[in-house]
């Protein structure tokens, strides 16, 4: 195998998304080869021995890594500006592998309170069973992050912007608070992708991804990854290679093709999302719109500093409450009724009765998940068709 592109070369991110991590076999194929093999062979017993003790590089077994998976890892590491990435079978596998590697019984996490539901279940249901404690804070309140820190705090964790209300955490400021407490900052960069935000460059120690979302971009496969320094990734790699939540070669191959179009997709999706957010703000049926790219967003200045654009998710509150929200969702003909996001197909969700249905009504109210709230994840359809689809339900 020859390495076609040196990921450390001074190429622009748009080029890295297409060329970083590309390896070419002796057949000199132009597209990415898919290595569907569980194991690899050795010329001699001595070579096998050298590989197993790490004296010689090479592929051993696809639970450890595989050429197609390695290409995905190198490309994503280059895009996030990290030294190294480890790919996993899903976004949740990435978060679990990271936490099980960094934490032990008696340790403490400080986390933003608006999190992906399964992440909350992982923290409260699985990590708690092994003696890890979690405190949740309002991600926008830096004093709350500071106040929640304890002597046993090892990890700060956040998602920014939050889902579905698009609240931002100031990554650089939270990183400073974490480091002052001797803790590491882990950022779930699923919503922004490295196209909009590179948390490692702002001071985060590790980035976790659900590659299932925008990195694939077509709703085809599950995947995840953790990106950071070689020193922090090595123990997570050893965990994954032992415990086995490894990314399949087929999924890595699919995700590599997703990365090739990541920039053009996300940039166009953000343009459309901003236009729809502005249009929604002008509709009399709409009480409020949540989108970091709008001047009315309470953290618009931070969004402009921290993100290259407002993102692909727009949420809004309808004055008519749940009836109006469900009528809109039942009526749309272009938007898909599904909770997925980051897809080329636009989707519409009613958070109060789906993604946030299992929390108590009081907790829901505190989190601002009101009955009239609707979340849109904007895809690549023509903006006028998306607007017309919504406008027809407002008429
Ligand atoms: C979907 C998602 C995850 C989990 O990813 P899976 O690939 O579904 O395991 C984690 N964080 C965020 C923000 C997500 O949207």
UniProtKB/TrEMBL annotation:
It is an enzyme of class 2 (transferase). The gene is metZ. Pathway: Amino-acid biosynthesis; L-methionine biosynthesis via de novo pathway; L-homocysteine from O-succinyl-L-homoserine: step 1/1. Keywords: Amino-acid biosynthesis, Methionine biosynthesis, Pyridoxal phosphate, Transferase. GO terms for molecular function: carbon-sulfur lyase activity; pyridoxal phosphate binding; transferase activity, transferring alkyl or aryl (other than methyl) groups. It comes from Crenobacter luteus. Transmembrane segments: none annotated. Its EC number is 2.5.1.-. Its cofactor is pyridoxal 5'-phosphate. This is O-succinylhomoserine sulfhydrylase.
